[in-house]
Amino acid sequence: MNELQSLLTQEKLEAFHAGLMQDAYLYFGAHANGEGTRFVLWVPDVSHVAVACTNPENMEEAVYQMEQHPQDATVWQVHISHKMIGYSYEYIIEMSNGVLFRKSDPYAQASELRPNTKSVIAPVSKHSWSKTVLQRKKIQNKDHREKPMAIYELHIGTWKRTSQGGFLNYRELASELIPYILEMGFTHIEILPITEHPLDESWGYQTTGYFAPTSRYGTADDLKYFIAKCAENKIGLILDWIPGHFCVDEHALALFNGGPLYEEERLERRANPDWGTLNFDVQKGEVVSFLLSSAHYWMNEFKFDGFRMDALVCLLFIPNREERPHNPEGTDFLRKLTNSLKEFYPEALLIAEDAWHYPKVTHDVSEGGVGFHYKWNFGWMRDTLDYMETQPSKRSEVHQKMNFSLVYQYEERYLLALSHDEVVNGQGSLLNKLPGTLDERFLQLRLLLGFWIAHPGKKLLFMGQEFGHFEEWEFKPELDWPSLETEEHRKMAEFTKNLLAFYKTEKAFFELDDHPDGFTWIDADNHEQSVAAFIRRGYLPQDECIVVCNFSDRHYEKFKLGVPESAEYEGIFSSGYEYQKAAIKAADIPYDDLPYSVEMDLPAFTMTVWKQKKMGVEQDER
């Protein structure tokens, strides 16, 4: 970066204050180049500002007074004729009453390893993106609405550790994780936040460094190496990013100039008592430029394939109001954000997490929407897990929880997330949510994942659930990988692998995910037997599949089901342990409001998939 790029012109300052700057990280913060190091900080309504820099070799601190920008008294800067790469630093801010306090840099691109909190002057990146990676980034998510998407949600620090119990760095993660993802068959990885944060147990959701990859797992170039390796192996990489709220720790953004600066000025909207965080003030242009620039930074500098944006409830709804009225200020900010990202990174996925009942989250801004591509289907997740946690003998009484999601399925483009939120804080792992004996729980977990795959919507699964992690997720050293030495967990992992391979093969399960033509109930209301049957379709008639889910603990030997064609149907997949390949001929007997019917063997706790048998062609046995 040359000195000219670092200079804030009047035009750039106006854009920054108006909330229109998308590359503020090029101008604010600390930047070392051949001629020295320049520090630039936005902090209004203070008397003096200095930067304290610590030499990593002798730990001596030197303090440099900063001056106000000649065209803008809210911007403080200093140029030091010494290249200070690797130095730690923090700002000393003096209020008008003489009170002094120290702050880390909001625009720092590196930070000390916790529990230390100073910012670090980052070196210029040595990483070079290959043409192969850059080309792959352009096509990774091409036509994503019509392609399979199975996301593996991952917390880097607890997925796997080194033999000494330490964190894997990003390069070690690449060598361990990428082969696993390829073997299992996931299409994308979503990593929990890696923006710098002070507390391990926050999982990254209480951010202090919006431009700094956490130092826990290595350097920025180490992270770029991992991202490039994902791209080379055709794995999409999604970053969990938090645009609505931030950490209260006093060394960071909170009360940055002695009063509310980044946080909401209105006291009643400022804090999130449940999370212990502060809400951004998105009415301030400087805060909007800060957040826009953070989003662009991760896309431009690190080439992520998309964002999953956390806790949008803080922006779409007025905070701390039980009735949750819509928040036009927060929604306008999100529209500006999604429009900006789509303009510069049209290939990136934008996924909304907790958007609750806000309308048109996945509609284009030009259509009155918020501009995301997908929205987590919290309704499906909670209803389905409530249903599966119910004793089989009582499921007939709550059958509507299993089928209700199709009432609203096509109002938005949904992603079905079986996420970390559902396996923490005493809720139990997916396996241990389920009733019955251990063998029955494994059968029901296979059934649950089968239903997850067969239901319309893209897919996300939290780490460990693919092999039936026994304990709920806590901040422990790593997942229980030794459990794979037991037959039950090994079979569960193999089943998930086969299920994902099946999903990616059968176009009926992804081509028309967000179109009503892709789904038709055969029988949604069979609560007496706790069975659900439906049809999934792709673009071509021959891709049509019939899905039958038996959520009961009863084996139905001659289960009667309506079918649309007078044809021979062949079983192509089953979640059961022992699957006997079978074919059944449709009888000319109407049933379930369809012109033909079949009788099939339907084991307890099993999902089966049937397809019209092609004459002279054998289907692969799953």
Automatic annotation (TrEMBL):
Database matches in InterPro entries: A-amylase/branching_C (IPR006048), Branching_enzy (IPR037439), GH (IPR017853), GH13_cat_dom (IPR006047), GlgB (IPR006407), Glyco_hydro_13_N (IPR004193), Glyco_hydro_b (IPR013780), Ig-like_fold (IPR013783)
SMART domains: Aamy (SM00642)
Catalytic activity: Transfers a segment of a (1->4)-alpha-D-glucan chain to a primary hydroxy group in a similar glucan chain
The EC number(s) this enzyme carries: 2.4.1.18
Keywords: Carbohydrate metabolism, Glycogen biosynthesis, Glycogen metabolism, Glycosyltransferase, Transferase
Pathway stated in the Swiss-Prot or TrEMBL entry: Glycan biosynthesis; glycogen biosynthesis
Keyword Transferase attributed: yes
Tagged with keyword Glycosyltransferase: yes
Domain of life: Bacteria
Domain Glycosyl hydrolase family 13 catalytic: 153-496
Similarity comment: Belongs to the glycosyl hydrolase 13 family. GlgB subfamily.
Name the UniProt record assigns to this protein: 1,4-alpha-glucan branching enzyme
